[in-house]
Amino acid sequence: MNWKYNHPLRNLFTxxxxxxxxxxxxxxxxxxxxxxxxxxxxxxxxxxxxxxxYYTYAGEGLVMAALGIIFLAARKRKLGILLIVGFAVSxxxxxxxxxxxxxxxxxxxxxxxxxxxxxxxxxxxxRNSFPSGHTxxxxxxxxxxxxATRNKVLQFVYFIAALAVGYSRIYLGQHFTADVLGGAALxxxxxxxxxxxxxxxxxx
Length: 204
Hints:
Vanadium-containing Chloroperoxidase, domain 1
């Protein structure tokens, strides 16, 4: 792959993230934290319950690290190293932000937890809601994959894949919309910075 021509500012993934953040912020300003969350959380079905319950694990940090190792083994050294470094940096930033200020998760925020749709009754009730770690990892991982290809269809597919992880966190009742938007921004910006930092490195 020729990284020279894969600038993030010419990538559909970047445009889609920008639109997502603007639309998300506007919706929160207009409708408010609770209403936006409940609107997205209550759109449930049996299929979504099954699919998102498992797909949310695509946002686990170990998935990103494992993918990096796979690319290293496949002699895609630059992408492999970026994925592993991205996993470490984005994870540390997300966990650091979680400890700056207490932000209750939906399961703790709502007095009537039956208002929140969950799957199998599994509802986290901590105070470390912002940002969503799964969403941070997903956007860090899929943005790097998008930056590594010039195929516009793949770039958009990677965005949908990252967005689905973010939505799963709301759907499963684990995070508010702002947590997901924060994670999306953090994950994307981490990968953008790493891409810029190592743009002239050729390890393949």
